[in-house]
Amino acid sequence: MLLKELSNLCGVSGFEQEIRNFIKEKIKDKVDDIKEDKLGNLIAFKEGKNNKKLMLTAHMDEVGFIVSNIEEDGKISIIPLGSIDPRVVLGKKVVIGEKKVPGIIGSKPVHLMTGYEGISSFENIKVDIGVSKKQEAENKVKIGDFVSFAPNAMLHKDWISGKALDDRGGCSILIDLIEANIEPFYNTYFTFVIQEETGLRGSGVAANQIDPDYAIVIETTTSGDNPEFPEARRSSELGKGPVITPAHRGYVNDEKLFNFAIKVAQENNIPYQIKRRTAGGTDAARIAITTGTPSLVISIPSRYIHSPMCVANLQDYQNTFKLLSIIITKEVN
Amino acid sequence: MDIKTILKNLSNLDGPSGYEYKVIEYIKTEAEKIPNTTNYVDNQGNLIVKREGKGKKIALFAHTDEIGFVITKKELGNYFRFHTFGGVDPKIVISQRLRIHTKKGIAYGVVGMLEPHLQTEEMRQRVLTFDDLFMDVVENSEYVSIGDLATFSSEAFELNEKYVTGKALDNRASCTTLLYTLYLLNQYVVENEVYFVFSVREEDGTSGASTSAYHINPDLAIVLDVTHGDIYRPGYPKIETGKGPVLDIGTMVDYKYFEKIKNIAEKISVNYQIEPNGEHSHTDTDRIQITREGIPTLLISIPLRYMHTPYEVVNIKDIEETARLLSYFIATGGE
Question: Which residues of B are less than 8 Å from A131 in CB distance?
């Protein structure tokens, strides 16, 4: 499992190069063909027993920011790429651009607050790179540079914590499936796509090149299983296995694939759960609307995604891997 | 002396109020590398480094403790509730990984925040308090008991070479300054008896330094702490990082010594800034002043950004210049 390493790479939407290079290096000798398309999707191919085509997809990008302005006092203004709650960014370390210039998102000292001060908006959130003049800052960063949460992953006994688990979890599972050297039933395309977080921009383009008969999107999804959140409103729970999505924003998942995945899980005694919310869309919606391909989302449940400190359960990761490792050897029926 | 490395090492050590021993131990080791010093740790845990002398007694103080958290309740699974001591804004605790100091070793807890996908509009607008926050203990949750303390786990690093950023620079920046002052003192012939007190328990209510002051009973006490830099405070002069030591003026400070140190700063061309305080400085100074029959005090502050957050910022030049001023001032007998 390369999830920790993948989490520690920086690949904000539109800047996936580091992730792509890492994955390419890991898998290039273990697949029958590999190519990088015009937008930066990485498509690896393994021949199967059947000529129909299965597309397995995970997105390489993570939520983050770009530099929107360099202020007179040398502070860096940022705008988010992907959905980020402004409440999760205060007091965090970030890195900017290819040179990974370190910076911090400071916060007003509590001592100087007058009364009960509210939530910052991104217009008021600035990155401090330790300079006090615009010119000095311009020697280090420029408008349009990516701003990523700083690498912070830690592997624990049962858990992993760190940034970008959405969707390095999916990338890691795809790599593990390739590493495991499983002979797939269908001609299988392991597709690592760009810019999911900024509007599902990579997967449709990849699907156009593959024209798959089936697609399975491997995601890292929400849970909400914390003490604050009523059970009835949770989308999944950690420790209960891979999450199979019946429907989400923009797409009701393919019935045949959905039932097939459940059947495989049941027959092999793999714990699984059905996603209980429709919030949030995935590349399945884009693929379905692009090539009309029957699609399904299978996810690792995760907590606090789209924040610099997400949590996932390693048992869930292994069970998600196990489920997919069997699915890809079987004919969909 | 490698000030940056010492400051970063001190920042990375954890010493919440009452549990400062790792920090004290590190400072003790560093102090022992400097000639002409002896040291001891008193009953309360304060480290006192002494330089023998015949003249008047001058004592310098820096607190070693840091703000932190205390585990207050176990919830289902590996979730725990916690509160803070020392004044922490709950907003900056969200999405942090905290280091929990249990009796069986270190545990790690993530302060979680519900994913934006699942939030309602009402939830998005809420300003969270400690009552709303929870800790998801992802490592060694079975070790954690009610009453365990936790600290930030952010690792210190250099920001644009001039600055160091990390947790607990309040007040490890001052601890570093005192070590450097101690080092610089060997450039001079010093007649006075000088004490460097690395004290405990400032953030939870200033009980460390004042008892050491009672014990030493100095003729002059100089307290080092940090102050807010690079932020506009209505009605106050703007204090800036990189512009030198901040000389505090106010009811807790001895005006005679204030003038003297100001004159010394001018004499040796140390840039300084002046910060007014009203009734309280909210530092150990307030207590030391009223110890025994009264002790003349000075308060010198290192300007710092983002106080009580996981990434406070200090300019190394301010530490160097403060130590340069203090060592000269002590060598001239505080006159």
Answer: 160
A43 with A162, same domain?
yes
Residues B323 and B206 in one domain: yes
Q: Is residue B164 a contact partner of residue B305, using CB atoms and an 8 Å limit?
A: no
Expressed as residue numbers, the domain containing B73 is 68-152
- Containing structural domain, residue A14: 3-62+152-327
pTM of the model: 0.93
With CA atoms as reference, the chain A residue closest to B167 would be A91
The CA-atom distances, in angstroms, between B132 and each of A86, B195, B310 are 17, 45, 20
* DSSP label at residue A122: G
Q: Which of B87, B118, B165 sits opposite A111 (nearest CB)?
A: B87
Which entry of B202, B275, B312, B321 is annotated as an active-site residue?
B202
- pLDDT per residue as tens digits for the range B261-308: 999 999 999 999 999 998 888 999 999 999 999 999 999 999 999 999
Distance between CA atoms of residues A131 and A74, nearest Å = 6
Write the DSSP symbol of residue B132: T
In a domain, B306, yes or no: yes
Q: Is the peptide bond before A33 cis (omega within 30 degrees of 0)?
A: no
A158 is in an annotated binding site: no
B313 shares contact with chain A (CB less than 8 Å): yes
Inter-chain contact B95–A306, Cβ cutoff 8 Å? no
Q: Which residues of A touch B314 (CB under 8 A)?
A: none
Shared domain check, B228 and B119 = no
A209-233 pLDDT, tens digit each: 999 999 999 999 999 998 888 999 9
- Domain end (from A127, A149, A171): A149
Active site residue B202: yes
